Please model this.
Amino acid sequence: MKPERKILLAMHDVGILHFDKAKFLIEKLFRITGKPFSLLVIPHLGNATEEEKQAFTQQLKDWEKRGFEFLLHGYAHTADPDQARTFRGKLALKLTGGEAEFAGLSEADSRAPLEHARNAWEKLGLGKPAGFVPPTWHANSFLKNQVLENYEWYEDRFFLYSKEKKIFSPAVSFAGIPRHALALAAIYWKACVHLPFRLPRLALHPADLELLGETLFEKVTAVLKTGEPVFYREINAARTKP
Model:
């Protein structure tokens, strides 16, 4: 009997940097799940060679044909350290090693990289993303509304947002967790996946493999026994089923 609860399974940080590691994880997770899932893509190609750009783009198109769902994951996933930010934004940069691209930005400064992300995505020649997720979930006071002007879903660490809904959905992730804090992170992981939350998010990252080794796949397998993976585009249908 299939579990009734739904789970958002997503691979974050799918970018041209360290792409081989991300590809390995995605394909292994596909063998575990038996079905495609959501990929959060960094569209900026940076200083990659033409060969690397072509390989990256072609692989994304292949995943699209196989049924994987895409969301935009920032523009470059790195922040400009000299850009004006609020105190909380500057603190977020320090806590994330400079990855909190949208943290603490003004309204205009927030919209600029969002537009860069959309333009870069269009150049990849892929279908419209199901949503937009800011790197590390740190953002600013304006980004959510800016995102929902053009995309169906936006999220932070604890909630999913559409134009009509705000859904409690805790993100289960080991991203950015130092090794000495793994035990505490594991307790949070278990709480999120075993307490009766209707729609937890399992947010995986390429760095998880280095941090957790093969136990990562054991954890994913255990989580999938508690719920059925769904896409972001299926959230409304999943929540309205009796």
